[in-house]
Specification:
It is a single chain. This protein has 289 residues and is of the alpha/beta class. It has 2 domains: 60-93, no CATH class; 98-285, Phosphoglycerate mutase-like (Rossmann fold), CATH 3.40.50.1240. Helix content is 29%, strand content 13%. It has helices at residues 2-15, 67-70, 82-92, 122-137, 151-161, 194-211, 231-241; strands at 98-104, 144-148, 168-172, 223-229, 259-264, 270-277. It has a 6-stranded mixed beta sheet, with helices on both faces. α4 packs across α5 (151-161). The longest helix is centred in the last third of the chain and has 18 residues, at 194-211. It catalyses: O-phospho-L-seryl-[protein] + H2O = L-seryl-[protein] + phosphate; O-phospho-L-threonyl-[protein] + H2O = L-threonyl-[protein] + phosphate.
């Protein structure tokens, strides 16, 4: 009985709460099966000023993949028994760990007026080679490489992928560089227009929700995935994944070609194993442009 009461209270907690704003650009999840026409409420993202847990309070359902939140308790007219409900919850539990490697692109020609001309410098190409060698030396079976569609990220990916033969590459606009959220404290030398935060923030938040989460319940083995993108995107993702205030993203600094390693456990816990690692590069090959 206590078990059933606890589940009922949890279900009420999931269904209740304050009204949320719908943001279709970053909506996650799928409509309920069976033609359920009930509107789906999506919590507002962090960049929109949504209420977040207080300092030091971890939200175990941060990726909305807690088993209890995936089971539709109202799908049946009769209340499920404890054994059936336990089986349904076990079916939704993640079983594998995701290892996420976030790679910042190498040094590029920052003065080019057109994005397509912002290609890697000779040093940048050397950095990408070193990063590729480092990833290959880990001896891991990488599942895929997802990269930003911007020129410097594409070129970095092409060089790194030579050291990881057979690993498929996927390009996405979601990981393009941008202004994720107004930083705190602000900086005087970089002040994008408010509309840029609004547009880029929605996209980068969508990238976080799409790519950073615990493994799917169907995944049986641990995965090792590489994401090659940009400093602002990586810094924002790290803050969001660790449930640190995302406004602090600009306090982090990342070298070109650096490796950041996030681990997402089946229970949703997240650990940062490396942040902006370039210890595999000689000192004269390190840059942050």
């Amino acid at each position: 009985m206590a078990f059933r009461q606890a589940l009922q209270l949890a279900a009420c907690g999931l269904a209740g709460g304050s009204a949320a704003v719908l943001f279709s650009a970053v909506a996650v999840g799928k409509p309920r099966a069976g033609g359920d026409a009930e509107p789906r409420v999506v919590e507002p993202p962090a960049w929109a000023g949504a209420a977040r847990p207080g300092p030091g309070v971890w939200d175990p359902n941060w990726d909305r993949r807690e088993p209890l939140s995936l089971v539709n308790l109202r799908k049946r007219s009769l209340e499920p028994g404890e054994e059936e409900l336990t089986s349904r919850l076990d079916h939704c539990k993640a079983k594998a760990t995701r290892h996420i490697f976030l790679i910042r692109h190498s040094q590029y020609h920052v003065d080019a007026s057109l994005e397509k001309d912002r290609t890697l410098t000779p040093l940048g190409r050397e950095q990408a080679e070193l990063t590729g060698l480092r990833l290959a030396s880990l001896g891991l079976k990488f599942n895929k490489i997802v990269h930003s569609s911007m020129t410097r990220a594409v070129e970095t990916t092409d060089i790194i992928s030579k050291h990881l033969p057979g690993v498929c590459k996927v390009s996405t606009d979601l990981l393009r560089e941008g202004a994720p959220i107004e930083p705190d404290p602000p900086v005087s030398h970089w002040k994008p227009e408010a509309v840029q935060y609004y547009e880029d923030g929605a996209r980068i938040e969508a990238a976080f929700r799409n790519y950073i989460h615990r493994a799917d319940a169907k995944q049986q083995e641990d995965s090792y995935e590489i994401f090659i993108c940009h400093a602002n995107v990586i810094r924002y993702i790290v803050c969001r994944a660790l449930q640190f205030p995302p406004e602090g993203w600009l306090r982090l600094s990342l070298n070109n070609g650096s490796i950041t390693h996030l681990v997402v456990r089946p229970d949703g816990r997240v650990a940062l194993r490396a942040l902006g690692d370039t210890g595999f590069m000689p000192p004269d090959k390190i840059s942050r442009s």
